[in-house]
């Protein structure tokens, strides 16, 4: 008995050969590495250079305040815009900010206020990235879109 399942002569290339996917994966990995290390390194650096725990606390408080104030606007922008564009722009902004901070530190202009402004800008860019990433479609299928948004589906039948 012959099989009725059509056989594809050339299967679609896997993700390991998909250049766009590998570029996005590499960029995301670098961005996440920087995003993970920066909050750990900055307080240590501030404490070692200034010797002031109050400045470390001020830096932390500034980041929290910026995140709280920006979150409603960032969530609205992420919901009403192309999420991929929001994520890409936020990552580009974060990369530029980190590059400028590294340049400031390397040139000897790494005063506390420069770091505070840079840190606030990084948190602001991250505030736009997070809701766009969290709301990205991922593995939604047309039958389950309503479930993912919290709205009940119509009963089948």
Structure, described:
- With 157 residues, the protein is mostly helical.
- The protein has one domain (25-136).
- The protein has five helices and no strands.
- It has helices spanning 19-50, 53-80, 83-106, 112-134, 145-148.
- The radius of gyration is 22 Å and the shape is elongated.
Number of contiguous helices:
5
Q: State which percent range the strand residues make up.
A: under 5%
Kindly state the number of beta strands. 0
Are there runs of 5+ residues with pLDDT below 50, and where? 139-145
- Main sheet summary: none
Structural class: mainly alpha
Which sequence of SSEs, written as H and E, runs from N to C? HHHHH
Subcellular location: Cell membrane
Transmembrane segments: 20-41, 53-74, 86-106, 112-134
Keywords: Cell membrane, Membrane, Transmembrane, Transmembrane helix, Transport
InterPro entries: MFS, MFS_trans_sf
Features:
mainly alpha, 5 helices, transmembrane transporter activity, transmembrane, cell membrane
Task: Write a short abstract of this structure.
It is a multi-pass membrane protein. Helices cover 71% and strands 0% of the residues.
SSE layout:
Layout: H1 19-50, H2 53-80, H3 83-106, H4 112-134, H5 145-148
Helix pairs in contact: 1-2, 2-4, 3-4
